[in-house]
Amino acid sequence: MRTIVRGKNLDVSDRDRRYVERKMQRLERMLDDRSEALVVLSMEAHKSDGDSFIVDVSLVVDGRPIHGTATGASHHAAMDMVVDKLERQAVDQRERPRLRSRPAEEKEILRSLADGTADTDASSPRIVKLKRFAMEPMFEEDAVTRMEDLGHSFFVFVNAENEKLGVLYRRRDGDYGLIEPDLGESGQSASGRSR
Known about the structure:
- The protein is of the alpha/beta class.
- It has 2 domains: about 1-95, Double Stranded RNA Binding Domain (2-Layer Sandwich), CATH 3.30.160.100; about 130-185, Sigma 54 modulation/S30EA ribosomal protein, C-terminal domain (SHC Adaptor Protein), CATH 3.30.505.50.
- The chain is built from 4 helices and 8 strands; from the N terminus they run βαβββααβαβββ.
- It has helices at about 15-25, 75-95, 105-115, 140-150; strands at about 1-10, 35-45, 55-60, 65-70, 135-140, 155-160, 165-170, 175-180.
- The chain has a 4-stranded mixed β-sheet, with helices on one face. It has a 4-stranded mixed β-sheet with strand order 5-6-7-8.
- A hairpin with a 5-residue loop joins strand 7 and strand 8.
- The longest helix is centred in the middle third of the chain and has 21 residues, at about 75-95.
């Protein structure tokens, strides 16, 4: 980390500069080598003696700016306080979830949606995954057992009794439902058997 120490309307002594650089080393474990910290020392004569020395620090941690200011009876005292504040802020920012930046393609889609030029068909749901598997005929009870073993809420199988495709599903009441499509019998009402 590179620390830049400046004085605002005052000359910074070598002793103060070394103290600031040493105190800023406490924050180096949270920063990368490219980080830069700007420390500005100043004084305000109109304040009380206990807080007339001011230290203002600005730096960036994980791409987020952090700023801290402290006053004290000396620049050393103010520096001690501001480093404590900055350390707490840096830890808070590290623990806070970071918003990811949007890729260029996603930004373009959002812009087109905002200005009304988006292709609405492209934004409608589409099939993104296809799964094929071999199906062996099985009895309904075996299908229930297989569904439970897999931990699924539905199970597609070929019924061994009638060789029809069946979709077994778990109902909200905890029981099971079975859907068996009637192929080639158009015009008839869909009446399912209840269990």
